[in-house]
Amino acid sequence: MKRKDALALDRVDPFAKKRKLFKLPKGKIYLDGNSLGVLPKASIVRVKHLVEVEWGQDLITSWNKHGWWNLPQVIGDKIAKLVGAPPNSVAVADTISVNLFKVLSAAVALRPQRSVVLSDSGNFPSDLYVAQGLSQFMDGKVELKIVEPKQIINAISDEVAVVMLTETDYRSAYRHDMQAITAKAHCVGALIIWDLAHSAGAVPIDLMACDADFAVGCTYKYLNGGPGAQAFLFVNPRLQPSAVPALVGWWGHVKPFAFSTDFEPADGVRRFQSGTQGMINMVALDAAMDAWKGVSMERLYSKAVKQCAMFTELVEQQCGEFGVTLYGNRDFHQRGSHVCLQHEQAYAVIQALISRGVVGDFRTPNLMRFGFTPLYTSYVDVFDAAQHLYEVLSKRLWNRKKFSNKQSVT
Amino acid sequence: MKRKDALALDRVDPFAKKRKLFKLPKGKIYLDGNSLGVLPKASIVRVKHLVEVEWGQDLITSWNKHGWWNLPQVIGDKIAKLVGAPPNSVAVADTISVNLFKVLSAAVALRPQRSVVLSDSGNFPSDLYVAQGLSQFMDGKVELKIVEPKQIINAISDEVAVVMLTETDYRSAYRHDMQAITAKAHCVGALIIWDLAHSAGAVPIDLMACDADFAVGCTYKYLNGGPGAQAFLFVNPRLQPSAVPALVGWWGHVKPFAFSTDFEPADGVRRFQSGTQGMINMVALDAAMDAWKGVSMERLYSKAVKQCAMFTELVEQQCGEFGVTLYGNRDFHQRGSHVCLQHEQAYAVIQALISRGVVGDFRTPNLMRFGFTPLYTSYVDVFDAAQHLYEVLSKRLWNRKKFSNKQSVT
């Protein structure tokens, strides 16, 4: 493949016009939208209005006047469309860890006779920590059991209360078979929680088609909601009347403004709200959701698959001799929207790339991760990134003091 | 008192210059800073920089480059100074309800043989809901017991695991005696959690002087952090090695970037962090904290006491005959920074006041609440607000269809 071939692909790319909705960082090829999505132009305007008019001028009246109060449900319904969830089943609130705690506590309470929370070693560590924290608090009444990703389906036994998995692995990009695993869980009477952190806005997801029980997900990666924007959670309508989280609060009360001293859960997913949500991040996210109008997740994913395959192929052709190898699944139709490469000097290589304006990230111990976000990643970005990697590796540009090892941040 | 007397007080007010740090709403007398504080000018600049430069341009590198990662601790240390807490004992994160859940779960785990969480009927309902949610999840192993505020001290028995109180009542403005109640709790071996939602930035608080175990608090009221800005929590250094919340996550791991599958809590208050925090609200709050430089809480509180007394006196002199009475404690040295009035048409009266630009709020069933935030509330604001209330009541301006009853929002 030549650079002109990449440019030709961009010219016929149906998503090319979406790229104009974002303020892309100047002089950079940004391949870290799987960690922090770029800034939508609409969010700049919306945040300014929130700060200067809604907060600055209208103040407390904005809770009604500017719809702050309902925003978690309004945005939830927008996200629902991207993950195959019906209206009133998705709420935006808090962080993934907090939401996971809420749905996990609700799920284990629905299976009081069972003692196992099952997950896999590819899950994002924070999800495992949430289960361990809950387990310790419950004096081991439930225990977290961790198996290898591909052993999950066979490990689902009738001791399992809850299966808790991340659909797309944050390193290997391996995608679980949601349909088969959910069916197996239900077959033995277990519940399932899907973490869609690396899936929502990246791959086609249909929560209702597989009849998932609960889900959580991130809005600051592929959904471009801004740094640390609130996470989302999904509760299957079938479970909404019976599921109650251990962590509740007045936003989840059936009549919050009655200020009753007794908690009575609201109907629907709203009972999974607890405290007052940060509105500046919330409106940035709401504006970011505009970019998803008219987007077919199937078509977007097929662009991602093409970009992941193209990047991997270019890297393997050009850089194989320099000790770089693909990490994870090679099947480009069973993986997420990022590519992870192994190299013994991964941290220094990533730092050298960043210094040239190609932004990916490092994951311990020896992984370089490159996210493809086809709403705004062009084919020529992919081509050029591979060329930069070739330059860095072939000229050993990573071998400089300034690229020495230190911590990085998701 | 005449209007010119109020103006004279403003001329010698040592806090008058602080008012210039805020964008006050045009044409309004804003007496709801106890619900949502006004917009600091510094926050406008800081949010714009966050959005356009840190998010828009520097993206993922901002976690290190712009100090996002450490901001919860940096702001925590600033808040610590206002509430008598040492460095590294306060963290900014999540919401009050989530933080209360964290510290309450840690506290009950430290008192496994005890079965009572004690609170009072004046506590903010969401706090009670948090305890009820935890109690239900624990199958009643701990039970919430609610008594009248003034009966708290006598209700602290050796069955009590945790005393959980809001220092300043959100309606009556009654302030608990932190020193005496904390001492009594410790005397019987119970732990204590103080909610400082209506105290931090309003009244002098000294967490270490009374040796409080845990505290939580709000940043979007008196601290002006912006709508729904993250809450804070305090853990006494004495308990930091032993207290572990039920809700944990990767931000509370001793080595978050090791991505280990086993949770190992960080030292200090950081273990009470869980997930990634929203940075737009966080920087707005950080900038808002600038206004507190050089502020003596004792002197600020004495201005608040003066304003509360002045407002109450003016209202009682002028409006007593129209059925309005003070709700709560009359002792202006044992109360918070707001005044609550009772009137049978409270909702309509508040609406009529808001339509004239005097913003207070309604609390069910018949309460009107007026917050005095002496960083930016002037004495003439207080005088004029009382005059508007007189106008509304004496001319029965509230008696109009457009002021009919409906829900309001904190």
Structure, described:
Chain A has 410 residues and is an alpha/beta fold. Chain A has two domains: 136 residues, Aspartate Aminotransferase, domain 1, CATH 3.90.1150; 248 residues, Aspartate Aminotransferase, domain 2, CATH 3.40.640.10. Helices cover 35% and strands 14% of the residues of chain A. In chain A, the strands form four sheets. Chain A has a seven-stranded mixed sheet with strand order 4-10-9-8-7-5-6, sandwiched between helices. A four-stranded antiparallel sheet of chain A has the order 11-12-15-14, covered by helices on one side. The radius of gyration of chain A is 22 Å and the shape is globular. Chain A starts with a helix and ends in a 16-residue tail after the last helix. The mean pLDDT of chain A is 96. Chains A and B meet through helix 2, helix 3, helix 5, helix 6 and helix 9 of A and helix 2, helix 3, helix 5, helix 6 and helix 9 of B.
Quick check: average pLDDT of chain A? Answer: 96
Seen as an oligomer or otherwise, the chain set is homodimer
Dominant shape of chain A: globular
Fourth CATH level, the homologous superfamily of the largest domain in chain A: Type I PLP-dependent aspartate aminotransferase-like (Major domain)
Write down how many β-strands of chain A occur, each being a DSSP E stretch of 2 or more residues.
Answer: 15
CATH topology of the largest domain in chain A: Aspartate Aminotransferase, domain 2
SSE ordering of chain A: HEEEHHHEHEHEHEHEEEHHEEHEEEH
| CATH architecture descriptor of the largest domain in chain A | 3-Layer(aba) Sandwich
Structural class of chain A: alpha/beta
Q: N-to-C terminal Cα separation of chain A, in Å? A: 32 Å
Q: Estimate nothing, just give the exact number of structural domains of chain A.
A: 2
Which strands sit side by side, in order, in the main sheet of chain A? 4-10-9-8-7-5-6
CATH class of the largest domain in chain A: Alpha Beta
Rg from alpha-carbon coordinates of chain A: 22 Å
The helix content of chain A is 25-40%
Q: Report the major sheet of chain A.
A: 7 strands, mixed
Per DSSP, what share of the residues of chain A sits in E-state strands of 2 or more residues? 5-15%
User: Helix tally of chain A?
Assistant: 12
